[in-house]
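Format notes (please read before filing issues)

Several people have asked whether sequences and C-alpha cells are stored in separate files. They are not. Every record keeps both together, in the order shown below: the sequence lines, then the C-alpha cell lines. Line labels are part of the format and must not be stripped during preprocessing.
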Amino acid sequence: MVNAQEKGMNRTVAFGFALLAAAVFAITPDSAFAGTGGASFDPIWTDLKEWMQGTLGRIVAAAIVIVGIIAGVARQSLMAFAIGLFGGFGMYYTPDILENVVTATIAGADAATTAVMVISNGL
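Then the structure lines:
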C-alpha cells in the first residue's frame, strides 16, 4: 500500500514535470522548420516505395496472404486469412498513405479561413 506521504510526493514530482514541460514549451521558438529539407533521403524513399509497390512488394504481399490462408486453414478460422489479406494490402498501400498524410493540403483552405474569420467576428 502506498501511504499518504508517498502519494503527496508523487503528485509533487508529477507537478514538477508538468511545470518543466510547460516552461520548455514556453521558451521554444514558435516557428517550425519541419519538412524544409532532407532531399538527400529522397532516393532512399523512392527505393523503398518501389520495393513495396513493385514486383518485390507484390511477391511479399502475396506471400503474406498465402501464409494467412495456410494459418486460417490450420486454425480453422477466417481471422488469420483476414489478417494476412489486410497485412498484404497494408504493406502495398503504406507508401501512398504516408505521402498523402505527410503532404496533406486542404483544397480551398483560403476560402475556409475567410469564412471562419467572418463567422468569428459576426460580420
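For reference, the curators noted about this record: The mean pLDDT is 75. Residues 47-105 form one domain.
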